[in-house]
Amino acid sequence: MAVNVISASPIDGQVPGTSGLRKKTAAFMRPGYLENFVQSVFDAIGGAEGKTFVVGGDGRFFNTEAIQTILKMAAANGAVKVIVGQNGILSTPAASHLIRLNKTDGGLILSASHNPGGINQDFGLKFNTANGGPAPESVTHEIIRCTAAISQYRIEQSADIDLSAIATLTCGDMLVSIVDPVSDYQDLMQNIFDFDKIRALFASGFTVQFDAMHAVTGPYAHAVLEDCLGAKPGSVVNGVPLPDFGGGHPDPNPVWAKQLMDVMMDEAAPDFGAASDGDGDRNMIVGRGAYVTPSDSLAVLAANATLVPAYAQGLAGVARSMPTSAACDRVADKLGIECFVTPTGWKFFGNLMDAGRTTMCGEESAGTGSDHVREKDGLWAVLMWLNIIAERRLSVDEIMADHWAKYGRNFYSRLDFEAVNAVAANDLMLMLRDSADALTGQQFAGLTVTKAQDYAYTDPIDQSISEHQGIQVWFEGGARAVLRLSGTGTEGATLRIYLEQYAPDAADHGRETQLVLNPVRLAILEIAEVEKRLGRTEPDVTT
Ligand code: G1P
Ligand code: ZN
Q1: What distance in angstroms lies between residue 3's CA and the mean position of ligand 2's atoms?
Q2: Which of 167, 364, 446, 528 is least enclosed by beta carbons within 10 angstroms?
Q3: What is the pLDDT along the chain (543 residues), one digit of tens a residue?
Q4: Could you identify the atom of ligand 1 that is nearest to the CA of residue 113?
Q5: Is 113 annotated in the active site?
Q6: Under 8 Å CB-to-CB from 348, ≥6 apart: which residues?
Q7: Pocket test for ligand 1, best of 19, 23, 279, 347 (most atoms within 8 A of CB)
Q8: What CATH class does 185-407 carry?
Q9: Counting atoms of ligand 1 from 1, which one is nearest the CA of 364?
Q10: CATH class of 409-542
Q11: Residue ranges lining ligand 1, Cβ < 6 Å
Q12: What is the DSSP string of 460-507?
């Protein structure tokens, strides 16, 4: 068999964002586009010669075609072995686990996460390093440099590999090991949780609905929740992964997982509801009549972690992204452990976990996870809740009420202004950067700013600096607003505004979130001149 060396030149729009390269599927399918990026990844890590990788994706349209290209390119670049999920399927956390378990040099994960899939929707590719986590900025910057310098790519001239059966095959001189996507991940879960306790919970009549949103977690949830833990058949809904996710938007939040929300807000709701996203790293938790914000979920999991066998000795520390609410900071304070605040994106947690400084991490965007892998993990979060409920035998809303009584409540909401003019959105952020210092002491919509800041982060482990990671504005009375531009969108720009209000008194805990947040919402819309600059008054999505 022969290696083809094909001349290539830089292609516009190959700059990875918050989590890898995400583009319209059609852009990825353009001749040379995927190939250029894959070659740049190999070049950026010093070549693929002698290396091993994990490859898999969330099953969206173009998943298997892209995997065939990646396999042939890995072979042509001298990789010795690639581990692939059967039929090209691997959830992001399962891929992270396989990288660590098999001590590979990294992995290529094909997904655009919670973005819709299909020929007219989105596709994505990200590179994870040998620790199992998303490539840090040092690596992504090198990838960007290589995409701009590329002159050729290498690809094996061979037939497609049959990914449909578990087997070890070859592509050129490279081994291709096709593995069951679920079994190693399931073993890992079994080692973390008290499966017997959770089995007893289900055996006692506890009911659950898990919405896999026609995305990658279907097979994982069927195997773990129904087949292994005894949740009754049918507990997993939309459990068959489809290339276009059934036309849905596989983002587990009250807007996109409305079907589940409707079920859970009904009187006849099951005891517990949960959903996961396209690639299985996000989660939504909802009790009967009680939606749990991701920020609160992180705080509850941290506060109750010692009820779960893997964390019985306590947590080394916790970490949250900057826009995530401060609910977990209060828990860390009480536990006497460190709480790290990092920029948006899971990659910033990697160093902290590798150094043993933090055990559990979370983001407001429905991401929660621990150091069992180096990605957020949707099903893990669900099992955390189930294990805690199995121990405490309280309902979700009882757990929340108890938590707020102890720590106070951080009301929280995020407003997304999607597909806005990118130039105007960038100008808005520049204006805020420039004026941040001068905001202190000024009043907007009746609220006085106590501090404003253009957020920059110095990694405590490697001292690397990440600047301009969002604007934070604090107000009198315990409110905060954060503004940043999304790094995962594929159309124009998306402005995210995050609102938070701390309420220490139990008398306030039952209030309606948007009412509580209205003053800070009005103040930040005025500060950012959203209507004047973006021509928008209402967000597209409020979560
Ligand atoms: C979004 C989330 C962020 C998450 C990322 C990948 O990024 O806000 O927390 O890490 O997706 O799942 P954004 O579009 O805001 O850059
Ligand atoms: Zn995801």
Answers
A1: 34
A2: 446
A3: 699 999 999 998 888 887 789 999 999 999 999 999 999 999 999 999 999 999 999 999 999 999 999 999 999 999 999 999 999 999 999 999 999 999 999 999 999 999 999 999 999 999 999 999 999 889 999 999 999 999 999 999 999 999 999 999 999 999 999 999 999 999 999 999 999 999 999 999 999 999 999 999 999 999 999 999 999 999 999 999 999 999 999 999 999 999 999 999 999 999 999 999 999 999 999 999 999 999 999 999 999 999 999 999 999 999 999 999 999 999 999 999 999 999 999 999 999 999 999 999 999 999 999 999 999 999 999 999 999 999 999 999 999 999 999 999 999 999 999 999 999 999 999 999 999 999 999 999 999 999 999 999 999 999 999 999 999 999 999 999 999 999 887 788 999 999 999 999 999 999 999 999 999 999 999 999 999 999 999 999 999
A4: 12
A5: yes
A6: 321, 342, 457, 459, 466
A7: 19
A8: alpha beta
A9: 9
A10: alpha beta
A11: 18-19, 113, 321, 344-346, 363, 365, 367, 486-488, 496
A12: TTT--EE----EEEEETTTEEEEEEE-SS-SSSEEEEEEEEEEE--GG
* C-alpha 253 – ligand 1 centre gap (Å): 13
Tell me where in the chain the CATH 3.40.120.10 domain(s) lie.
Answer: 2-180, 185-407
Indicate the CATH number for domain 2-180. 3.40.120.10
CA of 120 to the centre of ligand 1 (A): 21
H-state helical runs in 169-326 = 183-192, 195-203, 217-221, 258-264, 294-304
In the chain, residues under CATH classification 3.30.310.50 are 409-542
What would the DSSP string read from start to end of 2-71?
A: EEEEEE----S----BTTBEEEEHHHHHSTTHHHHHHHHHHHHTT--TT-EEEEEE---TTHHHHHHHHH
